[in-house]
Amino acid sequence: RLRKLVENGISKRFDLTAWARDTGCAQPTALARLEATLEQIRPDVVKLIVMESLEGTGDEDLDTMVYGETNARAFLEFVNKYAKGAAALDTNAPGVFYDLGSGAGKSVVTAALSPYFRACHGIEILPCAHAIAECVIEDFLRDVAPRDDGTTPTVSARLGDIFSDTSWTEADFVFCNCVTWDESTITRLTRTASSMRSGSIFVTVLCPLAEPHAFDFIAEEEIAFSWGHVEALVYKKTFVAS
Q1: Alpha-carbon span 82 to 116, nearest angstrom
Q2: pLDDT digits (tens, 9 = 90+) for 128-158
Q3: 10 Å Cβ neighbour count for 6?
Q4: How far apart are CA 199 and CA 85, in angstroms?
């Protein structure tokens, strides 16, 4: 069943360049090209693939929010808004973005359109979702890049566990959709994130960081997902006097 879904749904490939030309949908901006590219990756199909991969595990009964995707335009506005507040980020000296639990990679390629980042990476523990992300990134580099300023950031997704691969703690902006995570996992996430550099931005979805933590809470803002709107909690790593 999973193979059929992959072959006939999410990963069925077509010539996007020809499709855009033939339908008169050639897009003048990088964001418009991204939105056109992401249309072929249906959230409901990705969710089916993810749910099938969880069969027989302790997570198989999670509700519809087990898999969700951000809205590209709204997410880019959100990222740009709070990237401006990161101590190390500037459009003249862009930094690094990470998505923890990056799924199909849509948030990674969306953040790649922000002028505040020179590199955007994702880490995903599910092989099926990671495989989709690799296709999405390939399409991004072929059909969307460069950004409107003419530059193309480094974009990648890795298969792994965020508690084993802690390279993300060196990032300037980290996004984590942790809606279904339990208290012990959030505590572990908070402890790991404490090694992030001062002034960096850490965003969690719905679940706050465990107390005590080494961050200043700066904002709460709703963002759009494929299954609805939910609160994103924005933190900035506390400055430590040298």
Answers
A1: 10
A2: 899 999 999 999 999 999 999 999 999 999 9
A3: 17
A4: 8
The residue ranges of DSSP E strands in the chain, in sequence order, are 95-100, 117-124, 154-159, 173-176, 201-205, 215-225, 228-237
Cα–Cα distances in Å, from 168 out to 54, 115, 122, 165? 25, 19, 9, 8
**pLDDT digit string, tens, across residues 57-95:** 665 455 544 567 899 999 999 999 999 878 777 788 899
The bridge status of strand 173-176 relative to strand 228-237 is: unpaired
Counted residue by residue, the chain has a size of 242
Question: What secondary structure does DSSP assign to 85-133, as a single string?
Answer: T-TT-BTTB-EEEEEET-TTSHHHHHHTTSTTEEEEEEEES-HHHHHHH
Query: How does DSSP classify residue 142?
Result: I
Look up the pTM and report it. Answer: 0.85
Q: Give the whole-angstrom CA distance, residue 82 versus residue 236.
A: 10
Tokens of 147: 């950004």
CB 172 within 8 A of CB 131: no
